[in-house]
Predict the structure of Argininosuccinate lyase.
Amino acid sequence: MSKAWSGRFSQPTDKLVEAFTESISFDARLAEVDIRGSKAHAQMLSETGLISADESKSIAAALDSIGEMIRKGEMKFSSELEDIHLHIESELIRRLGDVGRKLHTGRSRNDQVSTDLKLYTRDAIDHIDQLLEAVQKAFVGRGDADLDIIVPGYTHLQRAQPVAAPHYWLAYVEKFQRDRERLADCRKRVNLSPLGAAALAGSSLPINRHRTAELLGFSAPAANSLDVSSDRDYLVEFTSTLALVAAHLSTWAEEWILWNTTEFGFLRLPDAFTTGSSIMPQKKNPDVLELIRGKSSRVIGAAQTLLVLIKGLPMAYNRDLQDDKRAMFDAYDTIVACLEVAPQIIAGAELRRDVIASRIDDGFLDATALMEYLIKRGVPMRTGHEVVGKLVAECEQRKCRLKDLTLAEIRSLVPATAAPLIDESVSSVLGSANAAAALVSYGSGSRERVKEQLAEWKKRLA
């Protein structure tokens, strides 16, 4: 088949140019959505009288057959036909002749490609949302079993305050929920149909863009044909949202890599999701988590690639946009791969209760609880902060814990006016377990508050 634009040219396209400009090597995966869009376009052409009903049926049937041919790997791809769109059209014309040549009436490859990309992105959003939900369920699913385990909470990687272990799990559930909400919001802007905007100015033919939007499940047609031709905002927004998903996955991976070390010793990863060393027999490496952490850079890079790609383009279509698909596909594939393995790691990991319990009272995790105890008895916050700081310094010198101090020793460092307000009840906030139990504010890390949040998430994810 000759080139779709061959009438204008007196020389054939150089083979180097064909190799340089082809995209079939990476856009063949758009075949299903391209056929979906073309069938809707053919139906609309029939309904507006631009082609006959019989021609529309012939086109639809041939497109279905071509789709099956592609799924079976029977279509031979060639750089001479550049992309998946021309491959499908070429095969359609080979089968139907002039009837096949009518399909492209009232559209351009510009709006056709954008339509395909929006359909693909919309499906991708829905798939990723399902995978994110599975990760959330994996975290929530282990919550009850871990509810009685108190672990250190950290800031600056320094021990800060104690929390129930599932408080960590729910922190990730919250992060991934925001990711799901961002994806849902992105989907609203993806779900506007470019089809029928043609090259940039629309068409003088009586096409019905609202009808094709309806047939393809779009909420409405995009309003400005010039904008449609250049718009890749939705891909930037989609990959930027995926970059946040990747960052959250990377944070989780980094934390569990640390918890899995001998130095922390909090976590034992499942054997099926770790690897060994070629030389050191004892090694059990968190390679899967390390790769999740590493692959986040590719997703973040994809969002940056698309921003740089569009930043210097004038209005309407430019061939630079051909490379938008590479970045988007790679970001999507990478996130899917990470999300597919994550739930099994989450569910299969084991908290090492004995190691955690043996060290949970190290690091003065109850210091803030003691300060707040003093506040509740009338000691100004800054004064209480200073007092507890002195108590901690005293304990460091003695190599003891706050709960080892006597009531008299605590009173001796408290302002004289407040000392009589402190009694034996102070022991109720000392020690990490008591300090965690003392947390009462909404969203805090005590067992009771975490139990409430677990129950709420079970309902939301049911």
Summary: The mean pLDDT is 95. Residues 110-148+165-353 form a domain with the Fumarase C; Chain A, domain 2 fold (CATH 1.20.200.10). Residues 85 and 290 are 39 Å apart (CA to CA).
